[in-house]
Write a structure and sequence with these properties.
This protein is mainly alpha-helical and 284 residues long. The radius of gyration is 23 Å and the shape is elongated. Helix content is 67%, strand content 0%. It has 3 domains: 124 residues, Leucine-rich Repeat Variant (Alpha Horseshoe), CATH 1.25.10; 62 residues, Leucine-rich Repeat Variant (Alpha Horseshoe); 84 residues, Alpha Horseshoe (Leucine-rich Repeat Variant).
């Protein structure tokens, strides 16, 4: 690395200490463009007196993805500033190194909900089975955003151990928890989720119903066929679109006539386009 590059990198890192988010982001992107040669300086910056420099350095290291940053980022999980902790967790998730698994699991007990949420998301991105049971134990977190993140992470992991613990959250008070639980169950694809998901085709929130339809299409349990046919009458175009897509995945020719009837009467163009795609899957 040339002397000029060294000076430029040092100047950019010092310039991260600004309250202007656009300027800070621009400087961080310039650092990312240097690639691996800037990693050592960013690792040093994780101990900078300014929390602004520390947290954006963590983010930048995550974007670069160099494994040399893993031990310093693990140490940054215990920074005195929550933002630094959060971005260190995210960076470790981006890098995906298994050395971060247990430090992130330990963070699931952190007093700050934001830190717990980011640790959860990072564990999902890394995708190691060792996180399954700790994540399941976090499903009852008091914070709805944490519960939602746990559902998403368990969906990424797609481990069948999560099916039964996820089912009670299909009736969670928060719609975003219900949405992500429904989606996770579809990613896991276990027939034990079919009946509880069918009940949720009547959920008050359209995006819950949409994700339920998507998941039933992924699981493809025959007992969901008739409930999905009935949901072609849903008041939401988004849900009708999701149901049509799910029926296409089933491949049951009994769906052809109901889909044709909807095609003739529905006024939503996105629904019609999805029906066309579904009918093509029948060779129709």
């Amino acid at each position: 690395m040339s002397t000029e590059q060294t000076k430029q990198i040092e100047a950019l890192i010092e310039a991260l200490d600004t309250e202007n988010p656009d300027e800070q982001q621009s400087n961080a992107i310039e650092l990312i463009e240097f690639g691996a040669i800037v990693v050592a300086d960013l690792i040093t910056a994780l101990a900078h007196p300014s929390w602004r420099v520390r947290y954006i350095s963590a983010w930048t290291l995550g974007e670069i993805g160099d494994e040399r940053a893993v031990p310093p980022l693990i140490k940054a999980l215990h920074d005195s500033n929550n933002d630094v902790q959060d971005w260190a967790a995210k960076a470790l998730g981006e890098i995906g190194d298994l050395r971060a698994i247990h430090p992130l699991i330990d963070l699931l007990a952190d007093k700050d909900a934001s830190t717990r949420r980011n640790a959860v998301s990072a564990l999902g991105w890394i995708g190691d089975d060792a996180a399954v049971e700790p994540l399941i134990n976090t499903l009852n977190d008091d914070d709805k955003r944490v519960r939602s993140a746990v559902a998403g992470a368990l969906g990424y992991l797609s481990d069948q151990r999560a099916v039964e613990p996820l089912l009670p959250l299909l009736t969670d008070d928060d719609e975003w928890v219900r949405i992500r639980v429904a989606k996770a169950l579809g990613k896991i694809r276990h027939f034990h989720a079919t009946e509880p998901l069918i009940k949720c085709l009547a959920d008050e929130h359209e995006w819950v119903r949409y994700n339920v339809a998507w998941s039933l299409g992924e699981i493809r349990d025959g007992s969901a066929f008739d409930p999905l046919i009935n949901s072609l009458k849903d008041k939401s175009g988004n849900v009708r679109r999701g149901v049509a897509e799910a029926l296409g995945k089933f491949g049951d020719p009994r769906a052809i006539k109901p889909l044709e009837a909807l095609l003739a009467n529905d006024t939503d163009e996105s629904v019609k386009a999805t029906i066309y795609s579904a009918l093509k899957q029948f060779g129709h």
